[in-house]
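Re: the request from the purification team.
They wanted to know what the chain is likely to look like in 3D before they choose a buffer screen. I agreed to run a prediction and write the result into the notebook, where they can find it.
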Amino acid sequence: MTNVSHRYQRDSRLADPDALDHAQALDELPPAPLTRVEAEQARRLISRNDSPDLPFEQAVNPYRGCEHGCIYCYARPTHAYLGYSPGLDFETRLVAKTNAVEALRAELSRPGYVPKTITLSSATDAYQPIERQWQLSRGILALMLETGHPVSVITKNALVERDLDLLVPLAQRRLVQVYLSLPTLDADMARTLEPRASAPWRRLRTLRVLADAGVPAGVSLAPVIPFINDDQIEQVLHAAAQAGASQAFYTVLRLPYEVKDVFEQWLHAHFPDRAQRVLHRIEDLREGRRNDSRFGVRMRGTGIWADLIAQRFALAVRQAGLNLRDLGDLDTSAFVAPARAVKPSAAGAARPGASSAQLDLFSVPDLAVSGPAASSPHRQPHAAGAATLT
């Protein structure tokens, strides 16, 4: 992975065992680039969405950038707003919004606030490896439980299991649902596509843990990439249903802004034999373009190939017994505005003295950077097969 140029340019990790199939693989992996976690202070945390093709109205992102390193991530361009590259910087120059819980508490306590389900998260993964240390997502869930506020979680990391003590009581009050993103069951493919996310088998086990605990769980088959993982639609949905998922949805690959360059570099490096076929089929889905940002078509594509994917998904969902009933909206009637005063939390507050910032869905709000920025360099080996591009 390189740092691709971006449209605003002017001039040791800790190993995550859930990302690997075998613990001994840690000794076989090349060293990863140094990752730094900077602390910023958020003036506001809630991002509001007016896109008609997204199933949520507001989201919170406790981090910016994502250590999972998914090559296809549509959120990569958000790093360009900061002057960072959507390439390697997106994975290695991370931001922890260390006052996230306090900032969210302040917003929820404002007069006139109307509760609507909050998505955790829309432009990062709230349970990426650095959450083990910072515990911002855990603090947010604790605040959701305290205030009776509904929350929808989407992640590809088994770390979400850590917070069962919060998720279970939220589920008992119809305040939470959790989706595991699972685009492939193939371990080698997963290590190439999303090198530091939990392994596919581990995500399936998380679905089972959640379902057995009574937490509504679903699967996100996203993205579907022609000639890369589109042959696995049926297998993924069947495995997810067997693991306890009750709901499923999908999207096709999106290549906004610099994601196109990052993805094409990766594609030619790892699948040179089929790269042109993949790109041509993407163009078939996008009316001759590599990306189509229009509402209503950007998530599913258009044309015969988009229709075939939709039909296969619908049939596989029926055969797997998914989406049999509408879970309905989460309960907003139990919301009680929190006290304005910041309360210390045993649920896992951020480190004392740290501060934080928040990126809107695809825009930048006012940020107050803590001074000096708290960098937390650490190293983690790449998962085997991780993209190395030049």
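For the purification team: The chain has one domain: 36-321.
Please add any questions underneath this entry.
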